[in-house]
Amino acid sequence: MATLLVPQVTQPVVAIKGRNETFSVHRIYCVGRNFAEHAKEMGAQPSKPNDPPVFFMKPADAVVADGTTLPYPRGTSELHHEVELVVALGAGADGIVAADNALDLVFGYSVGLDLTRRDLQARAKARGLPWDVAKGFDHSAPLAPIVPVSECGHPRDAILSLHVNDRLVQRAPLSEMIFSVAAVLHELSRLYDLRAGDLIFMGTPAGVGPLHPGDRFIASVEGLATLTGAIAG
Q1: Whose CA is closest to 115, among 71, 158, 159, 157?
Q2: pTM score, two decimals?
């Protein structure tokens, strides 16, 4: 039997609220331009419901546990926050999933930050280049413990918010999302086979901005999950 040349990498996991079990992460998908006002603040046209959603990805090991002090990432002087509802899949499906059945795949929900190296993103956009390095870097997906659907249901109009150093910087109801969770899962399944362990960051409202060394943040989905953390000074 062949032996591993490189030691097997530890599987990234996320805590599950109130349980000793953990959630193994398979992939991290992210939705862009899912809040109209955020698209406008970034100088882009908001998505229309009949348009396909904009997707990008982060590596699974970008997840960071609640309460962590994060290092300021290399290669940037503009680290930005983007608070988001996060969907955790507990089941997968081969092929295209109908929107009417898509929520059956959901294990639970959480709140996270899609951290972004904004200067790298801006430079790439200006040159018409991919901007993976702006999104998919180490420690770029802080995430609160996942709350199972059996305990929280499917949040539809709860308030998504972010405080930085006790100042409210982002706030919007989930009802302002252009694409619902079911619609996003359907569209993702047209491109990828969805799997248990997938996380989907659902997009951010207006108010994105910088995080500086020493900053503290509190992200929340009202009545569901809270994430705390800080940027190392």
Answers
A1: 71
A2: 0.97
* Tens-place pLDDT, residues 153-189: 999 999 999 999 999 999 999 999 999 999 999 999 9
Strands (E), 114-224: 116-117, 141-143, 147-148, 159-164, 167-173, 199-201, 209-210, 216-221
- The number of C-alpha atoms within 13 Å of 160 and in the hemisphere containing its C-beta is 29
C-alpha dist (Å) from residue 69 to 12, 133, 230, 231:
18, 21, 5, 5
In whole angstroms, give the CA distance from residue 60 to residue 192. 16
* Class of the CATH-defined domain 21-61+68-231: alpha beta
Torsion, CA 59, CA 210, CA 37, CA 146, rounded to 10? 40
CA distances from 180 to 41, 119, 125, 201, 219 (A): 21, 29, 27, 12, 20
Beta strands in the chain (DSSP E): 13-15, 22-24, 28-32, 54-58, 63-65, 68-70, 79-81, 83-89, 106-113, 116-117, 141-143, 147-148, 159-164, 167-173, 199-201, 209-210, 216-221, 225-231
